[in-house]
Write a structure and sequence with these properties.
Largest sheet: 4 strands, antiparallel
Helix content: 55-70%
Number of domains: 2
Strand order of the largest sheet: 3-4-6-5
CATH topology of the largest domain: Topoisomerase I, Chain A, domain 4
Order of helices and strands: HEEEEHEEHH
Radius of gyration: 22 Å
Number of helices: 4
Strand content: 15-25%
Distance between the termini: 51 Å
Length: about 180
């Protein structure tokens, strides 16, 4: 029973790390990635659809993203969605595809993006702590229902705390890597 709780704890905390990495992919670093446009949705015949599902999105070089829609009629819709997303650049529509030209980042922009990353890190840590709380509550319930002794309960809670500490350290390590990537000129 305790092993199931520990496995579930680890699985849920891994999901928090994966969510953090997904969030980090939307942040701009020195080199432009297509992850910047991952959260942009376009009106595709009345349905909000991810930009990556209505066209080809590629990073042609370190400062340019090119978007080629499957249907030419989507060009103005995509252009409008990018403007509304406020990602820091204006789309250039040439009739066949849209190009996004990102200027080199200033040091102020880099510092601001690091602040955004820190917010994402805090969110991930809160998520991990919530998983810990849920797991500890399950262990305490087993103890209350007399399915675990007090010693077994304490040991299980210590294991949960160790797992939590490991995942918080992983979050910090992931942040350090991303911070170095953002601040690298």
């Amino acid at each position: 029973m305790v092993n199931d709780i520990l496995e579930q704890t680890t699985t849920n905390m891994e999901k928090s790390i994966e969510a953090l990495k997904r969030d980090f992919s939307t942040l701009r670093t020195g080199k432009v990635t297509t992850g910047i446009v991952d959260n942009i949705k376009v009106d595709y015949y009345g349905t909000l659809t991810a930009l990556t599902q209505v066209g080809n999105v590629i990073a042609t070089d370190a400062t340019t993203i090119s978007i080629t829609p499957w249907e030419k009629t989507l060009l103005p819709v995509i252009e409008k969605a990018i403007q509304e997303a406020n990602i820091g650049v204006n789309p250039n529509n040439d009739g066949d595809f849209i190009k996004l030209f990102f200027p080199p980042m200033t040091s102020d922009q880099r510092v601001e993006i690091v602040k955004q990353a820190k917010g994402m890190v805090e969110h991930a840590k809160v998520s991990i702590r919530n998983v810990r709380k849920d797991s500890n509550d399950k262990v305490k319930k087993l103890e209350k229902d007399k399915e675990l002794s007090e010693d077994e309960s304490k040991k299980a809670q210590d294991q949960i705390q160790k797992i939590t500490d490991d995942f918080v350290a992983k979050v910090d390590e992931t942040f350090k890597t991303k911070e170095a990537d953002i601040l690298k000129v």
